[in-house]
Amino acid sequence: MTKNTVKRADITLPLLIEYVDALLPSLTTQTELSPEHNKDNSEALWVAHNHADLLALQAQLDDTTSTNKNTEAKLNAQKLSTLSDLAKQHVPDRYELACFWLPTLSEELTQHYVPLLMRYRDLYAAHLLIALDSSIDLKPYGFTPFDILSEPSLNIDDIQSITSSTVTATLWQFNLYDYKQLPNWLNADYWANPENWGKHRW
Fold it and tell me: Model pTM?
């Protein structure tokens, strides 16, 4: 199976974990430049629908990190939670990345948790990834569909081994650093009479 033949909806948990491992170093660089960056916070938050999904997620994370030299450091930099536990937190922590693995979440329950997803989008995560059933659309809430396999930062030799899974999802994202494209008019050429700057007293 080549990169071109894998559909956008075919996002598996191993593939998502590989992408997060590739993405985190760049997010760490961006947030270290920000004055409110707190080094005590975890780099990544992983969220599953229920405790059964959370155990499966933990097992997959353990399996993936066991092949890496920095296993302990990577595990310490990640926190795991369920949706219901996350919703009960009064003062959530801030994260560089919040990754919601929710392929079994129904559309009705998704609507129930949309306010939580939007809070993390707006306040608690610089970068947000949400994996949901392909029938659920998050565009109305400011998220954009995302194809991991088109990312040049993801350099994987054996794509088939991490895309062949019974559980797949569509991936949505929100990135605080590039969520809004700058319009053409937002530059000095279109500001109020730039040719008169320094020449006249207004």
Answer: 0.73
